[in-house]
Amino acid sequence: MATIIDGKRISSEIRESLRKEVELLKSQGMQPGLAVVIVGEDPASQTYVRNKAKACEDIGIYSEKYELDASITQHQLLEKIDELNSDSRIHGILVQLPLPKGIDEQAVIERISAEKDVDGFHILNAGKLLVGQKGFVPCTPAGVIEMIRRTGVSMAGKHVVVIGRSNIVGKPVSILALQENATVTICHSKTNNLHEMVKMADIVIAAVGRPQMITGDMIKDGAIVIDVGINRVDGKLVGDVNYKEAEEKASFITPVPGGVGPMTITMLLQNTVEACKRTNNI
Ligand SMILES: Nc1nc(=O)c2c([nH]1)NC[C@@H]1CN(c3ccc(C(=O)N[C@@H](CCC(=O)O)C(=O)O)cc3)C=[N+]21
């Protein structure tokens, strides 16, 4: 039976220390500020955005939320970003993805000032991550690495198998694992013998977006299993991993919900505090 890596518990520990840090910054006249922009009315997106605003409030981060109509033009959205880029109360800008069809997501991301890109999606931050310079690391990958670190198991020399190659999770988490001296294999929808690949993993990171596709028979005894998937099936949240099967084999496993999700928000808060500190040369 696996030990659960409790994302909620780890999150509240980190948020507690962030709260103290924010208090100190505020006492020195610096309050971190986050702007969240959401376009259209996807109910799932609205839930995330509400959770983010609440998380900010809990630790004393100032936050603004902009709910823009789905009919907004790309030009109008870019103007909003320009406005936030030059707003000194705002240290972090997050534009909730996906954006409606007809809006060029990459163009929108690139418009955000790299110093305020707390999502770590800007090409400059992606480049910095790749070459090992300090920038902003995407929140979900940062959360995944923090959870692995807290198992106490070193990633050095371990075989990490990542399933998924998105710019948001798969690619950046692979680079971070490599920086921890892991041996990294990136699998995806075109991978031959996915089963055999995953079976070799000391650490499995599932970020495919297909409910329960990683089954227990694919997990090596004693592996660490990190489930990044958030899939809604019959009104319930399930991961990319068949939890019941995998927990029989794994040494450590993350649950869904209560695993990587809360850690993503925590890393967003951390990046926002960091953005404020960098602006003030702290
Ligand atoms: N620019 C941008 N940045 C993002 O970081 C971003 C985004 N766009 N678009 C959507 C995805 C998704 N995402 C989640 C964050 C937290 C939970 C989370 O906290 N989930 C809870 C459950 C929440 C529930 O019950 O629905 C959990 O796993 O325990 C889920 C999903 C951030 N995203």
Automatic annotation (TrEMBL):
Positions binding NADP(+) in this chain are: 164-166, 230
Q: Which residues form the Tetrahydrofolate dehydrogenase/cyclohydrolase catalytic domain?
A: 5-119
Q: List, alphabetically, the GO terms of the cellular component aspect.
A: cytosol
Q: Where is the Tetrahydrofolate dehydrogenase/cyclohydrolase NAD(P)-binding domain?
A: 138-279
Q: How does it assemble?
A: Homodimer.
Give the family per the record.
Answer: Belongs to the tetrahydrofolate dehydrogenase/cyclohydrolase family.
Among HAMAP family, the record links this protein to: THF_DHG_CYH
The name this protein goes by in its record: Bifunctional protein FolD
